[in-house]
Design goal:
The complex is a heterodimer of chains A (about 300) and B (about 240). With about 300 residues, chain A is of the alpha+beta class. Chain A has eleven helices and four strands. Chain A is about 70% helix and about 10% strand. Chain A starts with a helix and ends in a 5-residue tail after the last helix. The relative contact order of chain B is 0.19. In chain B, helix 3 (about 110-120) packs across helix 4 and helix 4 (about 125-140) packs across helix 5. The chains are: A alpha+beta (about 300), B alpha/beta (about 240). The interface of A and B includes residues 21, 207, 212, 213 and 216 of A.
């Protein structure tokens, strides 16, 4: 254990020494990572807000389960409780016959005349069921419908099938585009970062040769470079986060009109803590991967 | 099996054994051709020959920096040509190597340059410090241990390189033109140091084209010409 700790200490010392000795190259690598992460992050911010907009639309998604006639209040409440247990249910609201009639009258004044002259209320009681965000898809909806259809006491189900399809398509499109463009940007940044770090490795090729000459194993040689890549990446990620936050603070008030057109009443938001950590950790991963790729493709390997 | 084949018998104290070793970098041109030799424990052998004779190639083959095109190389019982990727570092930890251009780490002090050999084998820091100090004392540089290589003379830098090569008590020392960059006075100083290593049981192989040096020490001489062994002369009786 102490030998292992000793090797870690040596790797950290060598990495610190390497960073000190090549401050300019390290700064270039960190800035390169920061620039690429600003691009990826700006796009990510757009996707995050687009998803919030779609989530906002998704909140309106409801399944109406019309109950059979003649159920008393206890039976209706029991059905409501049972529907709550169906997969993917966020909330269930019971709409009694009276409430349904009241809503109908208030929502469609011109059709209110249709109900005049009727002695009985023709509208059934229903359950208004909202889905959890992750189940707002074609498959999630199908699972819910299947579960609700198996509940005795539910006469009919109503849901905006086309609306769900459209919503799911829009969400898939945004996520697909995000994944594709994100992957392209990450690969491009990895290549740029690899090129930059490779220069640093090349500048120290003699040091690598000397270490190998005295019997240093692969891990002993590459560990300091990976640590350096990690530090450069974290610095780049933190810088990128700062730049993104600065740009966000400046651009959101300036472009408020355009943002309202794009997002409607959804308020634009910056990355939360987890998102911010992803940027910094993404930079660290990029730096380490860049170092690893530079060492694999290095001039003496 | 390669063209050279395995040896029928060898001396039990042979630490380095080459059997019909050839090395070619391009078709039809041989840097080394059919070289066979042995180096025993405590033996001091000069490798001489004009530039391009194959001295450096032979050295590089022995510490696994190159693979032979033909033949077998056994160093400390390991077949260098068949070593895995992880096997080469393990072998190099038992071999000391010294070069004409010293190959010191410029951003590490004298002490750290010597310690690197012990670091790669995981020697505890306290033990490493005391062994490094003892080795620097042996080469007369203990007072320079906190200096960086750029602050040292050529002779001092080579002494650091020798200290680095010896601090892990290697069984074989390979020195490729170790005095090529030094003036005659320093050359003798460095060669005395290397000769002392052989007297302690290490097999020493020194590549040089300095005939005066070879004459002065009167040790075994292997002379290469055009990649062949032209002469393998035993040591003379009188030594400095």
């Amino acid at each position: 254990m102490s030998a292992w700790l000793s090797q870690v200490r040596l790797a950290l010392r060598a990495a610190a020494s390497g960073l000190r000795a090549s401050l300019a190259t390290s700064a270039v690598a960190a800035v390169t990572i920061a620039v690429t992460l600003v691009l990826v992050g700006a796009f990510g911010l757009l996707v995050v807000n687009m998803e919030r907009l779609l989530d906002r639309f998704g909140e309106d998604l409801r399944v109406s389960a019309f109950l059979v006639e003649g159920l008393d209040a206890d039976a209706q409440e029991a059905l409501r409780a049972r529907a709550t247990e169906a997969p993917g249910v966020l909330s269930v609201e019971l709409v009694t016959e009276e409430q349904a009639l009241d809503r109908f009258r208030r929502s469609r004044v011109s059709r209110a005349a249709l109900l005049e002259g009727l002695e009985d209320n023709p509208l059934p009681a229903s359950l208004e069921i909202a889905l959890v965000p992750e189940r707002r898809s074609r498959e999630g909806l199908a699972l819910l419908i299947q579960a609700l259809e198996a509940i005795p006491g539910i006469a009919e189900l109503g849901y905006g099938h086309e609306w769900v399809e459209g919503y799911a398509r829009a969400l898939s499109l945004v996520r697909g585009l995000a994944t594709l463009l994100g992957a392209v940007l990450i690969v491009a940044s990895l290549l740029i970062v690899t090129g930059t770090i490779r220069l640093a490795v090349y500048a120290r090729r003699e040091e690598i040769q000397i270490l190998e000459l005295v019997g240093a194993g692969y891990a002993f040689v590459v560990a300091p470079f990976l640590i350096e890549g990690l530090v450069q990446g974290m610095a780049g990620g933190t810088l990128a986060l700062g730049v993104l936050f600065g740009l966000y603070q400046v651009l959101v008030p300036t472009l408020r009109g355009s943002i309202e057109v794009l997002l409607g009443d959804v308020q634009p938001a910056f990355f939360d803590l987890a998102g911010s950590l992803w940027i910094v950790l993404g930079g660290a991963a990029l730096g380490m991967l860049g170092s690893a790729a530079a060492l694999i493709r290095g001039p003496d390997r | 099996m390669s063209q050279g084949g395995e040896p029928a018998a060898a001396r039990p104290d042979a630490l380095v054994r080459l059997f019909h070793v050839s090395k070619s970098y391009q078709a039809g041109s041989w840097a080394l051709r059919d070289v066979s030799l042995e180096l025993r424990k405590g033996e001091f052998c000069f490798l001489t020959g004009p530039s391009g004779a194959g001295k450096t190639t032979l050295m590089r083959l022995m510490f696994g920096a190159e693979q032979p095109s033909e033949g077998q190389i056994l160093v400390l019982g390991r077949n260098v040509g068949r070593l895995s990727r992880g096997g080469i570092p393990a072998l190099r930890r038992r071999i000391g190597v010294v070069f004409q251009d010293f190959k010191l780490l410029p951003r590490r002090t004298v002490e750290e340059n010597v310690a690197v050999t012990l670091e790669v084998v995981g020697t505890p820091a306290r033990q490493a410090r005391s062994r490094v100090f003892a080795m620097l004392k042996r080469v007369g540089l203990q007072h320079r241990r906190h200096h960086y290589p750029r602050a040292l003379s050529g002779g001092e830098q080579q002494r650091v390189a020798i200290a680095r090569a010896l601090v892990n008590e290697p069984e074989v020392l390979l020195a490729d033109e170790p005095t090529g960059n030094l003036d005659p006075e320093l050359t003798v100083e460095i060669m005395d140091l290397i000769a002392d290593v052989a007297s302690r049981g290490t097999a020493v192989f020194v590549a040089t084209h300095d005939h005066s040096l070879v004459s002065r020490y009167g040790r075994r001489v292997v002379r290469l010409e055009g990649g062949h062994i032209a002469e393998d002369a035993p040591p003379r009786r009188t030594r400095p």
